[in-house]
Hints:
4-stranded mixed β-sheet; binds flavin-adenine dinucleotide; Uridine Diphospho-n-acetylenolpyruvylglucosamine Reductase, domain 3; Uridine Diphospho-n-acetylenolpyruvylglucosamine Reductase, domain 1; globular; 343 residues; 3 domains; 5-stranded antiparallel β-sheet; 10 helices; single chain; Uridine Diphospho-n-acetylenolpyruvylglucosamine Reductase, domain 2; alpha+beta
Amino acid sequence: MTIKENISLLPYNTFGIDVKARLFIEYYSLDELRQVLKEHKGEQILHIGQGSNLLFTRDFNGIILHSGMARARFIDDETVEAQNGLRLDDLIAQLTDMAYCGMEKLSLIPGEVGASAVQNVGAYGVEAKDVIERVYTLDVETQEERVFSNEECKFGYRDSIFKHELKGKYIVTSVVYKVKPGEASKTREEIIQTRMAKLPTVGEVGSAGSFFMNPFVPEDKVNELLKLYPDMPHYPVGAPSVNQRSVCDGESGGTSCPVDLAERYQHRNLVAEREKIPAAWLIEQCGWKGKTLGGAQVWPKQPLVIVNANNATPDDIIALAAQVSASVKEKFGIDIHPEVNYI
Length: 343
Ligand SMILES: Cc1cc2nc3c(=O)[nH]c(=O)nc-3n(C[C@H](O)[C@H](O)[C@H](O)COP(=O)(O)OP(=O)(O)OC[C@H]3O[C@@H](n4cnc5c(N)ncnc54)[C@H](O)[C@@H]3O)c2cc1C
């Protein structure tokens, strides 16, 4: 394993925040992970992946754990098991090259396999939960293995049991995904092109992707807002198909959902009990596109994203996010919540 003391976390978070960690440990096997957990029992531990959904708000006075395990293997023709430290997009690239499909719509989402199950990542109508069969973990306290079925993970929108009841209690060590033989290279390429046109490129512009989650708003409230804003995009939650419903998820669609889909929903007046309103649209309506606060900026091409435009401090980002959500609340009466994990 690799152990570093008092190091800068700058290379370990995509926001580009320069804070320090007391200890950084990278392990390369499950035995090493067990050993680390035993030796540091009771200490504050944060397991990170690529650090693409983290906002470090201050120095971290505990242990940052990272996996150096990054292999994948086919279990059979329909399931592939990937280790936690493998980049999700590297896995999808390999599967696509081998003419396997199912995960291509998650192409270019930053981050590692372990976090894909924690975050239930999603884009273009597919979420990790649609392709995850089971999740292997180690219990931080006992170091025993526990396997979670898809149902046991209690996946929701950018959510899983690992973010709530079991937060910090289990380390995801590998994930078994369902795949099937099939050509996916064209879709993968289209998605990569679309994402590159709209989203900040990791390594060039600091960000954590969508800063906020799209709010699910009660039907009465949606109808009330539609009287004031007849063009407001809104999508029934649990409407006809997952593919249609989630096309407008933050990173993939935001304010520029395919027009035909947006129109179809609005004209048929499909109002469910709760509806999703793109947070990007709400933020744009409040005039935030491109606005800056200190070194932080609301990304001009996709207002759901806050970027580190010019040596932003954590306080710049926190203050900008707070102002954005306060103005959405004031104008629309809707609470928007961060998707990004504040550490
Ligand atoms: C430019 C950009 C675009 C993005 N686009 C999308 C998108 O389209 N869709 C989407 O869903 N997300 C998107 N994101 C967000 C991000 O890619 C995902 O949240 C991703 O899953 C984070 O992976 P990571 O490995 O970087 O995890 P980190 O950010 O390092 O960690 C995220 C959380 O997972 C926990 N964690 C990490 N690894 C483990 C493990 N092995 N065991 C237990 N807990 C663990 C961490 O403690 C933390 O709570 C985007 C981010 C960026 C920067």
